[in-house]
Amino acid sequence: MVKEINYLRGQWLEEYVYTTIQNLFQLDDRFMGNSVLIQKHTTPNELDVVLMRNNVIYVVECKTHLNKEIFDLTAYKLHAIRKEFGLFVKSAIVCLNEYNDQSKRLDTFDIKLLDGKVTRNQDSFINALRQFIQ
Which class would CATH give 2-132? Predict the structure, then answer.
């Protein structure tokens, strides 16, 4: 029952993004991960979609609904991951609702947002992924 609840709460979006990216760029499973758990010291972090392409690590966090609190936590998490992994990390947040970053953290932390304006249309979503993943 827990697996089903997690799937309905958002794991389906992670799997959709993973599969879409994998098919779009013809990436082998060796270069991608879904629900990747990393741990530094005693602090675990779960990353929704991680891939490597052209020597760049891409981290994509997937949210079915994004509000200020979730955005703040996700932005800081992605910023910390980037600091940990180095300059060759690109981060994005994919969400289904429209979200306007009033804090300007997207620019400050160099995070790409693919929100409802993009994700509601498959062609727009695929084009945005192509622009993000080089």
Answer: alpha beta
Instruction: State pTM to two decimals.
Output: 0.90
- Judge contact between 98 and 65, C-beta under 8 A: no
Q: What are the domain boundaries of the chain?
A: 2-132
Over residues 5-56, the pLDDT tens digits come to 665 566 899 999 999 999 999 999 888 988 777 776 777 778 899 999 999 9
Q: How far, in Å, CA of 29 to CA of 35, rounded? A: 13
User: Tokens 């010291």 appear where?
Assistant: 41
- Sheet-wide strand order for 89-95: 32-40, 43-53, 56-63, 89-95, 111-114
The reported pLDDT for the residue numbered 33 is 83
Q: How many CB atoms lie within 10 A of CB 11?
A: 18
